[in-house]
Specification:
Blueprint (H helix, E strand, L loop, with lengths): L4 H8 L13 E4 L3 E6 L2 E6 L8 H18 L5 E9 L2 E4 L5 E10 L7 H7 L4 H17 L4 H4 L4 H18 L2 H21 L1 H9 L3 E3 L9 E3 L4 E3 L11 E3 H14 L3 H15 L4 H27 L2 H18 L6
Antiparallel strand pairs: 1-2, 2-3, 3-6, 4-5, 4-6, 7-10, 8-9
Helix pairs in contact: 4-10, 6-7, 6-11, 7-12, 9-10, 9-11, 11-12
């Protein structure tokens, strides 16, 4: 039996669909996933997208996400489960039936550890930001990109990523809105990349190109006095994650800047710089912040179309304007 994703979501909201017999199920959503909370466990399934043309491909990506999650969170239990169709319903955690979906099962962490919640409540501390910076630096030092993966950090490869984001931006808005933004962003991006190829090569040689996360956003970070954990690494598009460490650092600083948390940005950056001893990061940061703001803008445009939500168009323009602001900070040498 074939279920639409909306039908599957409704079935998975029922505790009887789980072999573990949870007392209740709570549904949460991120931009890319559905999350089902049941007792001490969290079950995550990917939303439909072009990157998952078949069930076999979705299974492969689910296993890849599990592998990456274990790299970023060695003490956070996760595993892949098959969701089976049984008598017109579904069962997750059983061994019988026809496979219809795959889920990543993770140990549930307290909601009040989620950075997006802490930021909304205004209770994030200096220590929280220091702990996040130290953990990200540790991940970077432990996961240098090698061989072909490290090539993505070269000047030509990064320029191609920027060109792609600028092209994608043009698809979603009238040219009268986007062309001025494009013109203001493209010139400083291209000039810096063309004039600093030695800097890109130097960072490649020093191991600053890493197998990164790609999306260190507040909704993906759990922080407490005990630990820092990360969900939703960019397991699908590794070319968006196997980049300079500045990419991961920028993904968080862009969001904090958009929320007006400049003091937290400085605490985070200062700690990262101290523990990583990355002397050239400040030079690269505005470049990657511009790129990350563009990337978030394009992603928001995609969601606007998928959800037919005009409010997301306003948010996308906010990201694109942020990209303009960051591009003005790119060194002109």
């Amino acid at each position: 039996m074939i279920f639409s994703q909306s039908e599957l979501v409704e079935l998975l909201k029922n505790p009887s669909s789980y072999a573990s017999n949870p007392k209740s199920i709570k549904l949460l959503e991120t931009d890319s996933s559905y999350l089902f909370e049941g007792d001490e466990w969290l079950y995550k399934i990917k939303k439909e997208g072009n990157e998952f043309p078949t069930l076999a491909v979705k299974e492969a990506y689910c296993h890849e996400e599990c592998r990456l999650s274990q790299i970023f969170n060695p003490k956070w239990t996760s595993t892949v489960l098959t969701i089976f169709e049984q008598n017109g319903g579904v069962q997750i955690g059983s061994k019988e039936g026809e496979p219809v979906e795959y889920a990543l099962k993770m140990e549930k962490l307290p909601d009040n550890w989620l950075l997006s919640v802490i930021l909304e409540n205004g209770t994030v501390s200096k220590k929280d930001m220091i702990n996040i910076a130290a953990r990200i630096s540790d991940i970077h030092s432990s996961n240098p990109a090698k061989d072909k993966a490290a090539e993505s950090g070269k000047a030509e490869s990064f320029r191609a990523l920027c060109d792609d984001m600028l092209f994608q931006m043009k698809r979603y808005f009238d040219a009268s809105l986007t062309q001025p933004i494009l013109d203001m962003i493209r010139h400083p991006l291209e000039k810096f990349i063309d004039q600093n190829k030695r800097l890109f090569s130097k960072r490649h040689q020093k191991g600053r190109i890493v197998n990164g996360h790609g999306a260190f956003l507040p909704e993906h970070i759990f922080v407490s006095d005990k630990a820092v954990n990360f969900i939703s690494p960019q397991e699908v598009h590794r070319k968006l994650a196997n980049l300079d460490v500045a990419n991961d650092v920028s993904s968080l600083t862009v969001e904090l800047t958009r929320m007006g948390k400049k003091e937290l940005v400085e605490i985070f950056l200062n700690q990262y710089l101290e523990v990583s001893n990355d002397l050239d990061l400040r030079k690269m940061l505005p470049l990657y912040q511009t790129y990350c703001a563009l990337k978030q803008g394009v992603r928001t445009c995609e969601l606007k179309v998928a959800r037919n939500d005009e409010k997301l168009g306003t948010l996308a323009m906010e990201y694109f304007n942020l990209a303009v602001n960051f591009s003005r900070e790119i060194p002109r040498v």
